[in-house]
Fold these 3 entries.
Entry 1:
Amino acid sequence: MVRTAWRELKFHPARYVATLVAIAISVGFMAAASIMTATESGAIGQQVAAPYSRADLVVSPSKAPDGVTNGQITQAIGSAPGVAQTEPIVSCTIILESHGKAEMASATAWPAVPFQWTTLRDGAWPQGAQIALNPRLADTLGVGVGDTVTSFGTTLTVSGITSELPSRLGGNPAIVDSAWLTGQYGDPYLLQTSWVVALDPGTTADQAQTAIASALTGLDVAADIVTGHEYVKTAAAEMTGGIDTFKYLLWVFAGIAMVVGLITIANTFTILLTGRRRQIGLMRTIGASGAQMRHSIWLEAGVLGLVGGIAGVALACALAALLGLYTGSIRYGLVVPWRDAAVAVGLGLVITVIACVAPARRATRVTPLEALQPTTADPRAGRVSAVRWVVCGLLFAGGLAVCLLSLTAGASSLLMAVGGAMAVALGVLFGARLFVPTLLRGAGHLVRRAGPAASAAAKNVVRDPARASATATALMLAVGLIITLQVGAASMRATVTDKIESAYPIDLSVVANPNETGQQVLPPSVVDQLNRIPGVGRAVPVQCRQLDDANLPGQLVCSYTPEVAGLTPGLPSSVPDDQIMVPENSFSLASGDQISVSGLTLTATASNAASYAYFFVSPATYDRLSGESWSPAAVFLTVPDTSMTVSVMQAVQQAVGGDVPIAQIDGNIVEKYTIDQVLNILVGAVTALLAVAVVIALVGVGNTLTLSVIERAHENAILRALGFQRRQIRIMLLVEALLLTLVGAVVGVVAGIFFGWLGARSVIGQVGSQGVDMKVHFALDWVQTLILLGVMVLAAGLASILPGRRGALASPVEALAEV
């Protein structure tokens, strides 16, 4: 039997192509989830942490009194014993424009020699109004050394091209002169800046940490002081935490994909063993027992599982490499978590062997005489055992209960959701014969009156309920997985975007800088330009004035009107008259603190709607404050379509720019844009992988129709003899293919919507157990779903062509003679 299995694999490899592809997809999906996210996370982490990679220590102030400046921090750290050199790492996001093209870039001030993390490929380091670009950014803008780019209305000369090769997901790094950056944008917020430190030879990290902490105590400044390696590791982890969340989401889908693979492989083995029915009968007649034949088939399955699993990991590596070539992360190296890959291969081997057990038992249970007879439809195919009803019902009901319980399980939500989803999927898939024939009969009633061919198709499609159910199940799985991914990704996008909007509810804010007379007011021409920018949804002007509180000199306070509150759902509906809205993690105010302004005592309430540039009070309170009122001192903008982020930011900068910008620009639009880019790339890559699963499922449709043509050769011959034309035979098989496809696709869409929502909900529950509060939002892209159904219908028509030709070209006399 071992030799028999080896001969089958050696001399008939073409028979196993569909099975190998099904295994490779199942394993590849799981492996790709780990390899892609690990590769992208590694690249982004290295890129973001690069400015700190050459530091011996990194100092990050966590608490500082008002009035302490960046210069004082630098001086205090530099005076500590054992410190050779220190300086802050200053970065900001800018938009660069040249030759009609615009790109967002992360500009970092070039530090002193000990802290420099990259080299020049061409040119020189920037001085004054100059900038050094990475090669991809320079190519995108079409500039080289000596050319110019504009940023915020300021012209910058390209002084050099660095050797950095950034990831597309990690931003576009650029190098600028420290003095120019500070002069253009001012000192960065103290508590959002970190200082890199180089130590004297012989000074240990512990000694320097103690000395620096003591030096900062004199300024009443508290700080986190860690080694450069620790800071880089932490910064990379914080930056890539979102991508790791997507990994967990993909692993939820991968667990479902394994179930999908199990049933798809079982269906493929059924078709494969049906084609070997006569061979199995001959082996039985010469003395092979049913157990020996089963063991031989299981051995074939084991070899196929191992080979398919290895091919799946190779496919996952290739897909991750292609993604890395697009994003640029491949330059940082392809990261393969071998433990995850080994688990995926092992699971692929296990599910392949499990998947072939039932088909092997069915194929070897028949007597040698039955196996040598021509293939006919099984008259017992319509029977469903009571055991299947009970087992599938328990799996479905129990799995659904576990899924619902996972919604409130906190830290265990992800594990429970995966287990419950697998139980539900098994109940639906193994129980397909309990409901698919009924659905096919219902669909058949819709086409019976379309002619004799359609009427015959409606009857034929349920002649073998087991095979029809298996074929519909394969389609159901392929479509269900794609819809699961689409719903999960769309729901995650909506959920994370809502979280960002609640954390940073204003897409863009344009706040006037003081002019020559000290007034902070935006000219009407600027407000008009902001209103007319393509991509801006709403532009709400706001009146503001300066507080006269001694502890908050020059602080801008604005009127929180209903128009402001209605900008986005993440904004509070109003501010009570006795309160003042201050930002979260304010330097000097916290919720519950009281301040006295203009004879009024106001209680501070922390909200992400406010920022360090402006506080909010109610319109009634605003009217009672003293001081000159400027209208508008700020304009708040919404950008509904994040794909227009760069063009909107560019237009806003042009409206308020110049050598001396008249306003500051802030908001959450960049974060939203980045998340959308990451999601689009990851979802696109995995959808491409799942498209192959659809092809396999449609091949199953063709196989089912081919077997149907073989089994119904006698009946088709009689139909031809009674006057059925070849065109009607082809139409009959086309209608059968469409009925099978539509039923499988519709069930797949319904199941996919549920699993996608469950996957997103369980991931958010897992994240919520770690202290990140997010509200799940269900989302479905109906356009993509309808396009998928349309493609399925078209592909079903193509799958029916070859079986239709076979059934239509045989003459009645030949077909009757063969039978």
Entry 2:
Amino acid sequence: MKLISVNVGVPRLVMSNGEPVSTGIFKAPVPDRVMLKTLNLEGDRQADLSVHGGSSKAVYGYPSEHYEYWEKELPEMDLPWGMFGENFTTEGLFEPDLNIGDKFRIGTALVMITEPRMPCYKLGLKFGRSDIIKRFLASERTGFYFAVLQDGELGAGDRIELIQENRNGVRVSDITRLYARDRHNVELLRRAVEVEALPESWRVYFQNQLQKLTAS
């Protein structure tokens, strides 16, 4: 497993329905090693902290292998690393294999998988097409967020080393599936709400779903 590219960016204004919108989704690769801290990478910023960033979404990872799929889906588009707004373009990490709570060392930093990425309208602004939001979610190629457990320095080419596997059996892809197409899976909902590494907002959301399904 490897870190293919490290991508950062600061918020910029783009037009949406004739109105200016600030977004930090525009990321570009950096050649040098950078510091990863509790809330983000050195040189990186989020525009709307109510839905982006924070301790559970400090950095966003996206598999380099997914780019081949999107190149076939969107042959007319140029897709450089960082196109999906990811900070880490990775190799060897896949949503169906990653447990919520898995811990990794990258460079001298220690990170933990927390949740999948749910697309918002700003992904549509980045791609210049609103249909990408539904297509992104339907593909279940969501990527994943990391929390930072230990600050450190990292750079493209670094190994991504699994330090501790969370054997709770709830994967990144399971969270996406519960949200998008398997909302009535009571057994999986029960497991998800018990995962301490899953952000509270998700656990509350799934607990509410569970209560609706099991109410007499």
Entry 3:
Amino acid sequence: MTAEFTGQLAEVLIREVPGLTEVHSVERLSGGASQETYRLSVVLDGQETLLALRRAPGGEFVDPSPAHPGLSVEASLMRAAGDAGVPEPTVYYIFQRDDNLGDGFVMSWVGGEALGAKIVRSPEFESIRPQLAFECGRILAAIHEIDLDRYGLRDQLAEMPPAVFLDQMLERYDLLDSPQPMVDYAAEWLRDHLPNPSKLTLVHNDFRNGNFLLEPSGISAVLDWEVAHIGDPMRDLGWICTNSWTFGGDQPVGGFGSMEDLFAGYESVTGVPVDPDHVRFWQVFGSFWWAIGCLGMAEHYRTGPDKTVERPAIGRRTSECQIDCVNLLIPGPFTLLEAETDDLADMPTVPELVQSVRDFLRDDVMNETAGRTQFLARVGGNSLDIVLRDLKVGAAHRREEQGRLSSLLNQSGSLEQLRRDLSRRIRERAIPLDSSELKAHLRQTVTNQVAIDQPKYSGLKQALAYLVES
């Protein structure tokens, strides 16, 4: 952390936060790929206190709009949710443009665990896990009953019924110009199954395992309101059941609970029964949405101000979301490719060079560092594992994909050209969604890609029930 940033931040907080007289330290934390998160040690009302800072990447200041409300609106949402009984930190100050610190705000530090894998597995939470899905349902119901007009939020948030939300995501996907036929297939299925919600409410839009803080007694804070909107409340119930956020757990709600308990908690507040098919639509949408979000992380790495090693690694997670769409929509048989072998040369091979760097990151850098640097070293090591797996089977995978595409489309061309044409034909319904050849191609392509990107992902483990030995 630069001394200039720390000094400027201290000057603003001492001026704007009543009772705050000193800023002792500013530490950027490892989590948060879309926003920056910091822990501040300050003197507040005469006592040493921890605060949290949430800021836009690179210290940018984004002009708010209903489609992109920004962190100032996120802070307002947290205040409104706190009034509604949702566990939230206290917001002390929202940055103004002339502070020259970017878009962000400072809030109280709330204790609790945010790492999804620990929430699923840690013995510390063994007693709360059986009640956690029910508690999540109750909290979501409280969020959906917040009076938007009372807090002046209606004009600050976009209204996105299901069809509008789907169109918005497809526009974002098209701008990324990275054709992924399984994403297009999921989009067309969603188009055919659009729900008609009885009412539109405040939607958190990112309430999931990993975006709340958990203590042994229960949830202590709901985080990350940056993508909230006005829409179908079932979006939130489907999102927390999206497989990306189960962290290897065997339960559909965040890896820790059942959908029945989630629905029961929700119904205990609203008195309205939850339709499982309505929620399933949003489960599919969740994997579709995050598949595009992962592609966006890769694009942000290429063009954005915060070029961390984390962003391209998340970009590769799009295949995880796509295998979840396969499992939900077109499960069936597939084969996995075996590694190709090359004759060893006298000089160190490319895999050996990559492995040596990976081991350096894991065995040396991680042991000599802490905090965000240690976290990014782990991410870097994981990225090199992807490279090693790609070196073994990636060429064969892409060669076979290109051959299947040529047969399916009855034309030749580069792999990118063929992918692009298949995506176009799916969107135009030139190939029907129930085509057995199309579904077989998508299964084969996605399963082998995720086997390269993340062979331990739970979605691949689910798909392996249909594995055909080659």
